[in-house]
Specification:
Number of strands: 16
Strand content: 25-35%
Largest sheet: 9 strands, mixed
CATH class of the largest domain: Alpha Beta
Number of helices: 9
Structural class: alpha+beta
CATH topology of the largest domain: Antithrombin, Chain I, domain 2
Helix content: 10-25%
Radius of gyration: 26 Å
Order of helices and strands: EEHHHHEEHEHEEEEEHHEEHEEEE
Distance between the termini: 78 Å
Shape: globular
Length: about 425
């Protein structure tokens, strides 16, 4: 496998059900980790809501991409993974915290749009399967999207939050012990992500991300493996020249094909859509004449206009094979997009718990993608870490303005080493 750097890719996805069960109960979910979940059923899926969810994810993702990719040669992110993980935090946010998150997420996970993500999940659940190519050969598409909140054992969780996880994500809370077994909790979360991504993301959370004040980690994982509808001939791949954004000529493996594809051309750009087997998933490749100038106006509306313009035509396509990865901490970027309160002392996640005041302490995202003659394999994961923060105490006023005593002590033993009284500090020795 070639070394991963970063490039542009957008995986539009939503959450697979982890299952709803009864009560606010604790049960072992096939392992040693207990699960607390609600009996509330998942909301009904409306196909129109899935489209609205996709639009909101795209608008959020392109705004985030613009900030994340500003100073990097290559970037790959999953807007869906980040939005889904943030959505699990949003349903417990109140007041200004929730208002800001709705603005940044384009109301994706607001109470008014509770059905959106569930509808998108229902639409995407049918994408996996085995499909025959033009020669009758069976080729597979695997799209796995899962969500797993990991909460502190014994933490009092608001019933409405458990209901929201069940109805919108089909998920419950996995119970770990951040306070007494922080490293074990980190390993459990990383192990779950690794399993869900077929080991493509073995360590999402590095040592030190969690501590004994961590209380809830909201995790999303996405795995995609899909064959092209018309694979590139491996024998046609040859080394060729690719000119980087810096103007440097590099030699890379270039794939070649002449086939019927959806293509469009506009002012300063060309685009082509390469379908995966089954026809429900595709990669849209956009080639600007000037990447820097194009990205300055690249947003969800631009992407919509480009995909709407695509039409079937014969295309002779040259495309580099690539294998790239991005890992980033997104807190500062999300604050800059317009949701600073969630990361501050003013955060209000009382919809999750009122036992302790929670604040988002980290947003970790990792994504990678491999593209070759056969198709694409990609994975992404996002973790939203919420930690407890003490309520600020009212300041105490103490004016030492009259005679006082002092005792200089050895604290571990309680031994008083010096003892005295000050009646007039103006008298010096």
């Amino acid at each position: 496998m070639t070394t991963r750097s970063r490039s542009i890719a957008f995986l539009i996805a939503a959450s697979l059900a982890l299952g709803a069960c009864s009560g606010a109960s604790s049960v072992p979910p096939g392992g040693n980790i207990e699960l607390a979940r609600s009996t509330v059923a998942r909301v009904a899926a409306n196909p129109a809501d899935a489209v609205l969810a996709g639009s909101a994810i795209n608008a959020f993702g392109l705004a985030l991409y613009a900030k994340l990719a500003a100073d990097t040669p290559n970037t790959v992110i999953s807007p869906a993974s980040i939005a889904l993980a943030l959505g699990m935090a949003r349903v417990g946010a109140k007041g200004q915290t929730g208002t800001e998150m709705d603005a940044v997420l384009h109301s994706l996970a607001s109470d008014a749009n509770a059905s959106w993500l569930n509808a998108l999940d229902a639409a995407l659940a049918a994408r996996s399967g085995t499909f025959k190519d033009a020669n009758g050969k069976d080729l597979a598409v695997a799209l796995r999207i899962a969500n797993a909140p990991f909460a502190q054992k014994g933490m009092a969780i608001e019933p409405a939050y458990l209901d929201a996880l069940a109805s919108r994500w089909g998920a419950g809370l996995r119970l770990v012990d951040y306070i007494n077994a922080t490293e074990a909790a980190r390993k459990a979360i990383n192990g779950w992500v690794s399993d869900q991504t077929e080991q493509r993301i073995p360590q999402l959370l590095d040592p030190g991300v969690l501590d004994d004040m961590s209380r809830l980690t909201l995790v999303n994982a996405i795995y995609l493996k899909a064959a092209w509808q018309d694979p590139f001939e491996a024998s046609a791949t040859a080394n060729g020249t690719f000119t980087t954004a810096a103007g440097k000529a590099v030699t890379v493996p270039l794939m070649h094909a002449t086939t019927s594809l959806r293509y469009a051309k506009g002012p300063g750009w060309q685009a082509v859509e390469i379908p995966y087997i089954g026809g429900s998933l595709a990669m849209t490749v956009i080639l600007p004449d000037d990447l820097t100038a194009f990205e300055q106006q690249f947003n969800a509306a631009t992407l919509d206009a480009i995909t709407a313009a695509l039409g079937e035509t014969q295309v002779t396509l040259t495309l580099p094979k690539f294998s790239i990865e991005t890992k980033a901490e997104l807190s500062a970027l999300l604050e800059a997009l317009g949701m600073p309160t969630a990361f501050s002392g003013g955060a209000d996640f009382s919809g999750i718990t009122t036992a302790e005041k929670l604040v988002i302490s980290a947003v970790i995202h990792q994504a990678n993608i491999d593209v070759d003659e056969k198709g694409t394999t990609a994975a992404a994961a996002t973790a939203i870490v919420l930690r407890a923060t003490g309520m600020p105490a009212e300041p105490v006023t103490l004016s030492v303005d009259h005679p006082f005593l002092f005792a200089l002590r050895d604290v571990p033993t309680g031994t008083v080493l010096f003892l005295g009284r000050v009646g007039d500090p103006s008298i010096t020795r």
